[in-house]
Amino acid sequence: MSSAEASVEDLSPHSSGDASGRSRKADPRLSALTKDVAEQDQAKLSQVILRDVAILAALLSLFAAAETWATASGLGLASLLSVVDGLLVGVATAGLLHEWGHFAGARLAGGHAPLKPIGSFPTLFDFDYKNNDSRAFDWMSIGGNAADIAAVLVLFFALPVSTPGQAALVAGAFGFAVFAASVEFPVIRKARSGMTGIQALSTLPRDFFARYSRRGAIAAAIAFVIL
After folding, report:
1. Which of 44, 69, 72, 125 yields a CA-CA distance of 20 to 30 A from 26?
2. Of the candidates 2, 57, 64, which has an alpha carbon nearest to the alpha carbon of residue 34?
3. Mean of the pLDDT values across residues 118-136?
4. pLDDT tens by residue, 9-66
5. Please, which residues have CB within 8 angstroms of residue 5's CB and are 6 or more apart in sequence?
6. Which has the closest alpha carbon to 177: 218, 219, 149?
7. What's this model's pTM, rounded to 2 decimal places?
């Protein structure tokens, strides 16, 4: 076991020794957080912005095409496609902006968060958990959630939300925001109570993605029905 893995194991509240003094194996998810990160950005910020703007434009264009077909044809299949596209594009849009919110929060707090190579999509940057302070972790965490909430509000107020597809677009973004908040707000609270970022992250259940994805899906379904 590496020294990094051992340090994560000591931090994890789920780690404990047995009668022979041996410890449980460190959670590999947390071990990855202790790895050294690059000293500088591995891609130009302008290029990464251009890449993600192009991705966002392509996603919204696909939705717009499906929405236009549904509106013009009145076909049930076209309407179904616009709803499916709306949900998926809403989730992807909120998720993409969520990562940029994390990055902006970390950088604004003075944290070390170098951009990853441009081909590493969807991962945007590395966060130096070992050396960044609690303020950088807090701002990074809040930034992601602020960004996806902003995405929901922009979509809601920018669209007339007069078709099922448009309602699905907003609902998809809202569902992602609920998913992200369910995962990250408990971590933020624990970090603010005195835990390090890694300690707070170690309290996440191993099945957190499946567990909170269901919560996000339910929230999206409720929002779709209401809208």
Report:
1. 125
2. 2
3. 93
4. 344 444 444 443 444 455 666 677 778 899 999 999 999 999 999 999 999 999 999 9
5. 26, 31, 34
6. 149
7. 0.86
As given in the structure block, the two tokens for residue 53 are 């703007």
Tokens of 195: 């835990």
Spatial separation of the C-alpha atoms in residues 16 and 30, rounded to whole Å: 16
- Residue closest to 90 by CA, chosen among 144, 170, 163: 170
In this predicted model, what pLDDT tens digit does every residue of 138-187 receive, in sequence order? 999 999 999 999 999 999 999 999 999 999 999 999 999 999 999 999 99
